[in-house]
Each structure stands twice: as C-alpha cells, then as structure tokens.
Amino acid sequence: MPRPVLAPSRILIVKLTSVGDILHAFPAVGAIARAFPDASLAWAVDGRMADLVRANLHVHELIVVGADGGSAPPRWRGYARAARQARAGRFALVVDMQGLFKSAYLTFCSRAPYRLGFGWCRAGGRWALNMRLPGPPAARHAVDVYCEFARYLGAEPDPARFDIAVPPAEAGAAEALLVEGFGAVPQRLAALIPTSGWPSKQWPPDRFAALARDLVAHGSQVVVLASAGAQHLAAGIARDAGPGVVSLAGRTSLGQLIALLARCRLVVGGDTGPVHIAAALGVPTLALYGPTSPDLTGPRGPAVCVLRHDVPCAPCRDRNCVRWECMLAISTEEVTSASLALLRDSLVAGRPGGGPS
Residues 176, 317: one domain? Predict the structure, then answer.
C-alpha cells in the first residue's frame, strides 16, 4: 500500500513490553500525538507495564493485556479480551511497535484500515500489516528507530522529549514510603538499582553497599529499589551499608517507583528499566554497562553518564555469562567518583531535592 495522507480520529499504539522498550517509544508516540492533535490516542500494553504508559502525557486510554498491575505475564485469554477491545475501539490507525505474533494479533483484530509496523520483523510479526516501515536500519539507538514511525506518518519527533508526568496519587504514596523508611522525606535522595533482567548485567552487591556508604558519607540518603524477588539481596545491601540506607524492594508499584525516582538527585544502576525511567525524568543517572551496548539501548536524558570498559568480549549479549569481566572491570572508586560528580552538577544546576522533577 502506498504511503497515505492520514487524518485519523482514533490511533492505537501496540507496544506491550518491556519497561525500557516502552519508554524508548515515548518520543515517537509524543510526536504522533502532536501531529494529529484532534485524534484520541490509545495504547495496548501488558498489564505489568500499564502504570508506565499511564504516566505518558499523550495517552487518553489503555487497552490492558492481562492483569492491570499484576506480576504474571498475560495468558491468551487476556489477549482475546484485549483483541475485542481493539475491535470495539474503531481505530483508524494502528501502529505496532512490538513486531511479534501477539502484537500482530491485536493489530489484525482491530480491523483498522491502516496498520503500520516494522517491515523487517519476522513473518509472524508482520502478517497483519498493510503499511511497513522500511528497513532494517543500520545500528541505531532504539529511540531513534522508533522515531522512524513518527517520520513515516509525517511527524517530526524530538528524541530527547519523553513527556512523563507523575500522577499525584503515586507521588503521595511514594512520599509515605519514604517517611516510613527514613522518618522524614529525604532532601538528598539517591537510589541504587542493583538488579536487572539478566544476571550478567548486574554489578556486585558488595560494591553497591560500598557505594551506598560513600554516598551517605557525602550527605545523601540512599534507597535501594528492586522487585519483590530481589528483596533479600536489596536488604543485604542496605544492612551492609549501614545507617542512612533503606531498602524498599518489593514495596512499590510501578507507578510508585516512577514517583520515587522523580524525587531523586541521583540514580545508579545497570541496563534495567528503572534506570531508563530515571534518565527520561531528567534525574542525574549513572548507568553501568557491560554485556549490552549503550549505543543501542542506553538511557536517554539530559543528565546521563554511562560507565563501561572495553573488554574484548563486550558487548556479548550473553544473559548468563560466567566470566563477567565487563561488569567486574567497573570499580567502586570510579562509580563513587562519577556519582559525586553528577550530584555536584545537579546542585550547580539548582535541581530541587525532595520533590518530583
């Protein structure tokens, strides 16, 4: 189908997972929303990620696949229910930014007259499309790849613009957690994210504990954030670090996590969703990279520093690397130095502490 001139009244974005990937799509979605200001914009998303999409300023409605805010992946019953919602939504344009069979299923069931997606994804992800983004692209950052959807539709994206807002209810819940943990709302809050979806992306816990002690010695209050499955690890880091360090692992919803990150003056972690969120919020962010490439999936934001070492095997993209040289090469001393530099820069820039950015 030749590229049409569109004026859709209802648009559906299909981007189901994961946190970092969804966030990388925000600049493109914002550009599409601005290009069609009279259109209503909906987003189909895995229920585990729904709070992140709710924070996007341009989304008017959600099609939640599976349990809203749940911890389990959706089953096909959830996809069937979402497919019925997609069809009932009478969308004029669907943009499939996932490129998998499950997203193609929702795209097809929408019966939208225009269905745009990746032209280079596997056949199982493109059978529902009647418009295809040309490609594959040369090695580019994920944000820039998603922005091609906006350009295809005649919009001009700003790759640095994420348009995230923290809902007031989530901000209030985050403040209550901080008061419970610290006795008062910290004014110089730093967050450590010690876990990631891949074991090979994780920096050693004892180094996170040493970093936390250094940050406390320089006047910060430190919160350790992680999923419920990592509560024991996070509690161990907080215990080894000593006073001034609190673990809130497993105690926050995704929305509350976003609100907590927005209050921080510094966030340190590996290639994981919360680090990408912090960067997009404009929080000074230190990202520790090893088996993955920051040039392709690194955090984007106005105050981001990436630490990595050029070991011969990196980036290997091995989820369970037993050598771990790339992450072990990052020393506590250099992480502390980079963290303190980011904190100094935020003070010079006048970033307020203790409240959302």
Answer: yes
